[in-house]
Amino acid sequence: MRPRLVLFGDSITEQSFASGGWGAALANHFGRQADVVLRGLSGYNTRWALKVLDRAMEEAANQSADPAAVTVFFGANDASLPDQQQAHQHVPLDEYQTNLRAICAYFKNRWPAAAIILITPPPIHEPARIRDMYGDNAASRQPERTNEAAGTYAQACIDVAKELDHPVIDIWTKMQQFPDWQTSALCDGLHFTPFGNKILFDEVLKTLEIIGFSQQSLRSDLPLFHEIDPKDPLKALEI
Amino acid sequence: MRPRLVLFGDSITEQSFASGGWGAALANHFGRQADVVLRGLSGYNTRWALKVLDRAMEEAANQSADPAAVTVFFGANDASLPDQQQAHQHVPLDEYQTNLRAICAYFKNRWPAAAIILITPPPIHEPARIRDMYGDNAASRQPERTNEAAGTYAQACIDVAKELDHPVIDIWTKMQQFPDWQTSALCDGLHFTPFGNKILFDEVLKTLEIIGFSQQSLRSDLPLFHEIDPKDPLKALEI
């Protein structure tokens, strides 16, 4: 059975198949070994995600075997400030953790064999957020998200992962270790540039490798070209 | 049921999820509407593809509904010259057509509801092929593929498509309509640059639209962010 990776998250997941995206990079990396199933819901927070979870996974689950892994990547919207422009996306910290636990419990129940990989919200570059929200009318505006709030939600996500013993990718911390991350990794202070996508892609690969899911450990679908003998090509293709 | 698009072909399909790739672009375009299933087999010709077809589609078929469409994109390897470096990939023109018919018959039988979209081999830029095959020792070498041979196989593919009444994308002709296609659309005289990928992506979209498969005609999975009322977000998410 060809393994599957399910990507569940908000816009940073939904957009992960755009040019240079981390989801497409996974599909490319495992092109002969695994299917990558995209379930991104732009703008959604954990409250909304939980509400639609069963419907979102309906066809992703319609298979004879559990996925090998599912990434759960929410929090960027939950961490929107409760008194700014995107207040309706805000979810209080306690509820964010409760929702994450419920999402993980759903997957653990539905797909007992799947690894659940949590990903923290990314860092925020506030000036770019203000420009993105208010354009030329940005003077004396406040950002709708702050890096500090994102960091608080990132830590809360890490705590839930540790509590449930799931692997977690702390992209909030990791991304800020790169020079000029504000503009090299983020395109609008929130979403990822191709370089930012590469940072996450590398972290996902590392995490998958830890759970035993790698190019080396996976069987390739059908003989690779270099395994086919030019003098007797059909031999390698026999069953 | 979320519709599926199955991409079946050689390296130009297998690499279609690399950065800027046409497959990833389809997955991104239909991110909230359809799943794109990658079944690319680098180096394969139609003879080899036919031999492994049932195994290649094993899990792609393991679903309760037929895919909406499948792209069949072979010929670049079949058209390798029979007396040059990649002779073992060569398939005679008659057999190429017979194999294409058999591949189409397989899909028609297995997935009666799926549209079968044939794609011709792309054009070839011969000097780049010689460089790719022989590097610095290229003097007085012959290319292993020619644009003329690719064109002959492209026409043969079109003829099979017309005979079977399947839509066909003549990427051999289309690509050559773009300025400097030799280097703007092809990166090594055979595989696609991001611009070349964009040309094919646009053609696939047009063809899908003709068969009634488009963003406009497809239902989106779950409410889109702009459909969610900020004053009562959960309302849109009720079943």
Automatic annotation (TrEMBL), chains A, B:
Is Hydrolase tagged as a keyword?
A: yes
Q: Name one GO molecular function term.
A: hydrolase activity, acting on ester bonds
The question of whether Heme is a record keyword is answered with: no
Under Pfam families, the record lists: Lipase_GDSL
What InterPro entries does its record include?
GDSL, Iah1-like, SGNH_hydro_sf
Question: Which keywords label this protein?
Answer: Hydrolase
Q: Which family is annotated?
A: Belongs to the 'GDSL' lipolytic enzyme family.
Q: What is this protein called?
A: SGNH hydrolase-type esterase domain-containing protein
